[in-house]
Amino acid sequence: MAKQPMLKFVKISRDMPEKRGAETRKEDFDEIYAEFASAKAEEQASRCSQCGVPYCQSHCPLHNNIPDWLNLTATGRLEEAYAVSQATNTFPEICGRICPQDRLCEGNCVIEQSGHGTVTIGSVEKYITDTAWEKGWVKPASPAVERSESVGIIGAGPGGLAAADMLRRAGVQVTVYDRYDRGGGLLTYGIPGFKLEKEIVMRRMKQLEDGGVRFVMNCTVGEDMSFEEIRNQHDAVIVATGVYKSRDLTGPGAGAKGIVKAIDYLTASNRVANFGDTVPEYDSGELNANGKNVVVIGGGDTAMDCVRTAIRQGATSVKCLYRRDRANMPGSQRETQNAEEEGVQFEWLTAPKSFKGDPVSAVVVDRMRLGLPDASGRQSPEIIDGSEYDEPADIVIKALGFEAEELPTLWGAPELEVTRWGTIRAEFTSGRTALPGVYAVGDIVRGASLVVWAIRDGRDCAEHVLQDLDKQAVIAAE
Ligand code: FAD
Ligand code: SF4
Ligand code: SF4
Asked: Out of 58, 63, 266, 416, which residue is the most buried by the measure of CB atoms under 10 Å away?
């Protein structure tokens, strides 16, 4: 009888790829996890119990066929594993690196519930596709038939790029417009290199270009080109612009010099550290933490990326203020632990009251406690009277979340319906908006979300755009 290659979780423990030591990794912006060696990937994949009802798969936004690609990896059939993995995910190596797996696939792996560590799904997914790149199995689109219809996509983030890839593979003529000089959206300029090295994103950009996707960069729709012009040039338009309006701080002194937005700070760092760009605000010190006492305000993933960037820039001290406690923070526990190992100090249950100096020299901080649950069931933070203290700060980074820009106004398109949060109102799954031939995907529909959801939206939307183009072609032929 053939040897059972799977179900090894009883004998083999969960093992992650090696993590570089904090003292070494905080000296650079390279990723902190190494790649699995092939034997290790096979061993870790073999821990899967091949569940009949795989909860990992149902909790993956892309419904990746995880048990199958784990089985194929465990048995050394890597090219097939890659074929299965890429059939549902446009960028598996990116998701393998930056999905919050503890809240998605791995967080629902049943072997953890039976007291064994979860299967390291994300690391195996990354290993499969990194190997596929190495072996030359990842190919640009080469559609069997070219179609005459064209689709314009506004935004080269993961949502727009996933849609572009699907449409181009179906032979559609695709043009992507973006206001930045490089594609990738937040993959390139938001998420730091120590979570996602930029060559990983740039090789995907090249693959899309090689497959015939046309990119128009440095083009802000609403300024350099009107939304109307784009609609007139294409049979369909997909809006994938993300959310970039930073939530602001209030309180006396909140407008002082030295209080900066997280997105500006991270973009400058990504440009300088990963691409060697010259950024005047970085050189002047405005967006550079070197030699400074840094205070980051917020408890989400953006705040975690800011504190860890500040450490790498050589800050004197880095403190993170968050108004709830550790158990109630929105950011990933894994990233928080990484930040602590690298020397970040967390001040749980604290909130800024006011700011001293201009440029800023200190944050006046209130201590908080958790009170009664609010309407959402979450305990509301309350100020502890008389608890205030001064936290020295030469730079304060606001990482309080993002909202949608007012697109209907900016684009002179009042008929583009939005929700009360300013996000575009779009039909579930198809992404169709109130405007005929206009679709929307990713954060601009969901509000600040995740890369994997933007990919899912882009893929779903592309399928519906194709169906709608087919219907129009039939009507035109009648
Ligand atoms: P985006 O990635 O924001 O891309 C939108 C693109 O549209 C941009 O390139 C922008 O330049 C362009 N654009 C906007 N307006 C215009 C215009 N008017 N004209 C032309 N172009 C325009 N998610 C995870 O899953 N894991 C993580 O670890 C993670 N870390 C994050 C860290 C940070 C600091 C931030 C801010 C977010 C993080 N996220 C993470 C969330 C994730 O990056 C987003 O959910 C995802 O990128 C959304 O994809 P998108 O395509 O909708 O938009
Ligand atoms: Fe897990 Fe994300 Fe991969 Fe899905 S895409 S299997 S959630 S790492
Ligand atoms: Fe394998 Fe865990 Fe998924 Fe079950 S839930 S199929 S054990 S990865």
From this structure: 266
Q: How would residue 459 be classed by pLDDT, with cut points 50, 70 and 90?
A: very high
Distance of CA 354 to the CA centre of its chain: 31
For domain 150-243+404-477, give the fold: FAD/NAD(P)-binding domain (3.50.50)
Q: How far is the CA of 32 from the centre of ligand 2 (A)?
A: 19
**Residue 345 one-letter amino acid:** Q
Strands 395-398 and 259-261: parallel
**Interface pTM (ipTM) of the complex?**
0.99
Q: Please write the tens of the pLDDT for every residue from 230-273.
A: 999 999 999 999 999 999 998 999 999 999 999 999 999 999 99
For 252-400, CATH number out of 3.50.50.60, 2.60.40.60, 3.10.20.740, 3.40.50.720 equals 3.50.50.60
241 Cα–ligand 2 center, Å = 23
Which ligand 2 atom sits nearest the alpha carbon of residue 122?
8
Query: Vertex 33, ends 51 and 93: CA angle to 5°?
Result: 55
pTM: 0.96
- Mutation choice for ligand 1 from 177, 191, 243, 397, CB with most ligand atoms inside 8 A: 191
Nearest to 402 by CA among 241, 253, 225, 200: 241
Q: What is the pLDDT of residue 249?
A: 92
Q: Which residue's C-alpha comes closest to atom 4 of ligand 3?
A: 51
Q: Is 170 in the pocket of ligand 3 (CB under 6 A)?
A: no
